[in-house]
Amino acid sequence: MKELLRVEELEKSFTMHHLQDKHIIGCSGISFSLNAGTFLGITGKSGAGKSTVLKSLYRTYKPTSGRIVYNSEKYGPIDLVKATEREMITIRKQEIGYVSQFLNVMPRVTALEVVMEAIMEMGIELETAREKAKVILEHFKLPESLWDTFPRTFSGGEKLRLNLAQAMVKSPKLLLLDEPTASLDNSSKESVKEMIIELKNSGTSMIGIFHDLDFMETVIDDQYHLANGLFKRVVGV
User: Fold this and answer.
1) What is the pTM of this model?
2) Is Chaperone among the key words of this record (predicted)?
3) Is 112 in contact with 134 (CB distance < 8 Å)?
4) CB 216 within 8 A of CB 224
5) Distance between CA atoms of residues 157 and 223, nearest Å
């Protein structure tokens, strides 16, 4: 099985300038590899550094040290720690998706337009993007009455479903999921599971943070636990 991602001794620290330049370690000593078409789940208590790991992989946080070697379609093997901002923008648009519990979109952009814009970043023309957007919004059970509505008015669950649709519709090579089932009812969780399985079967690799362990165990291939600064593989998954 082909390796897609290798992380070696990743560390991210923060400097708190308002606290006399105090340094806080967000995560350290993070090492693992991920093969194409597999799903790695990360567990741990709130504040352990799980989201810091994902944000460092996506490079919304610039890692302090370590290596993140990603096998890019466009650039070949590339260390995301050292990649330029231009390279990262291209990789985010075309290869790596990120789903957060929080929706961050431009004001006065409708839900349908949010998903269409994500599709068109892949070079797909307008009308095809519109049809693909409608299909995935239906899949995630976002009511059609909301498609032409501005997402700032949505509930937490509706925003999360829109986030999932926006990222998953692109079938990225790598998908990072930060609590993908938070605020979702059981029916919506099933929609997420169906899409995860479909993406895995088509070759998408995934890394996800979970508190819903029952859901996680139905979709992951490997598991790591982050606690007390240690990142350990859970045996027997």
Assistant:
1) 0.92
2) no
3) yes
4) no
5) 26
Amino acid at 136: I
Tokens of 19: 């606290």
CATH code, 36-59+83-233: 3.40.50.300
User: For 102-114, how does the pLDDT look when each residue is reduced to its tens digit (9 = 90+)?
Assistant: 766 677 899 999 9
98: closest CA among 68, 57, 42, 153?
57
- Backbone dihedral region for residue 44 (phi beyond 0: left; psi -120 to 50: alpha; all else: beta): left
Look at residue 33 and tell me whether its pLDDT is greater than 80.
yes
Supply φ then ψ for residue 201, to 5 degrees. -65, -25
- The tokens describing 116, both together, are 């269409």
Domain ranges of the chain: 36-59+83-233
pLDDT tens for each residue of 163-198: 999 999 999 999 999 998 888 889 999 999 999 999
Which pLDDT band holds residue 17 (cuts at 50, 70, 90)? low
Look at the alpha carbons of 146, 137, 212, 7 in this order and tell me if their dihedral is positive or negative: negative
Long-range contacts of the stretch 81-85 (C-beta < 8 A, 24+): 81/10, 83/59
Residues contacting residue 1 through CB under 8 Å, at least 6 positions apart: 35, 36, 37, 38
CA distance 126 to 124: 7
Query: pLDDT tens across 147-159, in order?
Result: 999 998 888 888 8
